[in-house]
Amino acid sequence: MPPYDLDNILVIGISSRALFDLEKENKIFEEKGLEEYTEYQLQHVDNTPRPGTGFRLVKNILALNSDGVRKVEVVILSRNNAATMLRITKAIEHYGLDITRTSWTGGETIARYLIPYRVDLFLSAHESDVQEAVNAGHAAAKIYSFRKFTPVTKQDKKIIKIAFDGDAVLFSDESERIFKEHGLDAFLEHEKENAEKPLPEGPFAKLLKSISRVQKDFAPGECPIRTALITARNSPAHERVVLTLKEWNVRLDEVHFLGGITKRDFIDAFRADIFFDDQDVHCGPASQVAPTAKVPVKETDSDS
Question: Nearest-CA neighbor of 236 among 202, 177, 189, 200?
Answer without folding.
Answer: 189
